[in-house]
């Protein structure tokens, strides 16, 4: 036990001696350090002011450089923005111009298409109208001219005049057609001297030479004829050379005949006084045939035509030839 305690005491003493030596060394170094002089140099106020001025100048220069850099950057940014905006404006302007050009072209195309469609529609309508016009066959007209009695009928009547209203059906593409007409012929009466009355105005006097004064005569006619074009020409096929012929019904009005004997009759010493007779009216069937020449004038046709008429009247046929000029409408 004692050995153990002694050992502990010896250890504590060694530690104490060691700590005392370390402390002594530290104090010696401290004293050596405090005895050494540090040189101190004082600066003058002018030097300090100069350095402060240089520092401020440097600061101002730095600030100015920073300001200039900032201005340069701002100007560069502004220029870039301006250039960008100008470029965008230019592109927008080009885009607007292109849009306007496309719109204008579209408008022109639309107008051209509308005009083309209108022209096509007009052409189609004209073609349809022309086809319909060409398919129509009905026509009517009006004509007038000279009417000349012939054969026995000319013994009692002079030439006169005629009015004819034709109507009928004939397609322009066909050579064949049918035509009807209503006509009026007026003829002036003759004064003839012979032993018998003219055949067309029979009277009781037929054995004594007499003077026969025949009154004016007129004929109403209704005819139905076939038509054939021997030749057709022109845009609408309205010009043609044609033949026509058929039959009709003719009404002859009453005629006054003044008969004046020129020699005594039945042993009389003097001629008998003039006597006026009224020949009866009559309606008779007849035939006719002739030719005509038509000339197109627009959608109408002028025509020149002549036919020979022969009606089966009492005692002798009554014949006459009208030559007429007229116009036909379709």
Spatial order of the strands in the main sheet? Answer: 1-2-3-6-7-10-11-12
Helical stretch count? 2
Helix content: 25-40%
What's the CATH architecture of the domain at 137-329?
A: Beta Barrel
| Head-to-tail CA distance between termini | 168 Å
Q: Low-confidence parts, pLDDT < 50 over ≥5 residues?
A: 1-6
CATH class of the domain at 137-329: Mainly Beta
Biggest β-sheet description = 8 strands, antiparallel, barrel
> How many strands in all?
12
Can you write the helix and strand succession as a string?
HHEEEEEEEEEEEE
Describe the 3D structure.
This protein is an alpha+beta fold. The strands form two sheets. An eight-stranded antiparallel beta barrel has the order 1-2-3-6-7-10-11-12. β11 and β12 form a beta hairpin. It has two helices and twelve strands, in the order ααββββββββββββ.
């Amino acid at each position: 036990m004692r050995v153990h305690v002694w050992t502990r005491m010896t250890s504590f003493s060694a530690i104490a001696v060691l700590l005392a030596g370390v402390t002594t060394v530290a104090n010696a170094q401290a004293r050596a350090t405090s005895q050494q002089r540090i040189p101190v140099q004082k600066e003058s106020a002018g030097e300090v002011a100069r350095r402060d001025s240089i520092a401020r100048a440097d600061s101002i220069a730095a600030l100015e450089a920073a300001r200039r850099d900032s201005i340069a950057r701002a100007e560069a940014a502004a220029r870039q923005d301006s250039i960008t905006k100008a470029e965008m404006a230019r592109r927008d302007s080009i885009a607007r111009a292109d849009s306007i050009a496309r719109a204008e072209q579209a408008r022109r195309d639309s107008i051209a298409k509308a005009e083309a469609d209108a022209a096509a529609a007009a052409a189609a309508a004209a073609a349809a109208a022309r086809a319909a016009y060409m398919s129509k066959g009905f026509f009517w007209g009006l004509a007038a001219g000279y009417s000349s009695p012939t054969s026995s009928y000319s013994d009692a009547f002079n030439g006169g005049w005629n009015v004819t209203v034709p109507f009928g059906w004939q397609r322009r593409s066909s050579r064949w057609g049918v035509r009807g007409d209503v006509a009026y012929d007026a003829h002036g009466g003759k004064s003839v001297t012979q032993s018998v009355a003219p055949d067309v105005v029979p009277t009781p006097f037929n054995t004594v030479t007499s003077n026969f004064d025949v009154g004016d005569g007129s004929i109403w006619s209704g005819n139905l004829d076939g038509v054939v074009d021997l030749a057709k020409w022109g845009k609408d096929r309205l010009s043609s050379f044609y033949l026509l012929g058929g039959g009709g019904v003719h009404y002859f009005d009453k005629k006054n005949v003044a008969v004046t004997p020129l020699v005594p009759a039945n042993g009389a010493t003097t001629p008998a006084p003039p006597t006026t007779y009224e020949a009866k009216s009559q309606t008779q069937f007849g035939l006719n045939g002739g030719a005509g020449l038509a000339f197109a004038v627009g959608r109408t046709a002028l025509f020149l035509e002549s036919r020979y008429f022969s009606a089966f009247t009492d005692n002798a046929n009554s014949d006459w030839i009208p030559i007429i000029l007229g116009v036909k409408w379709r």
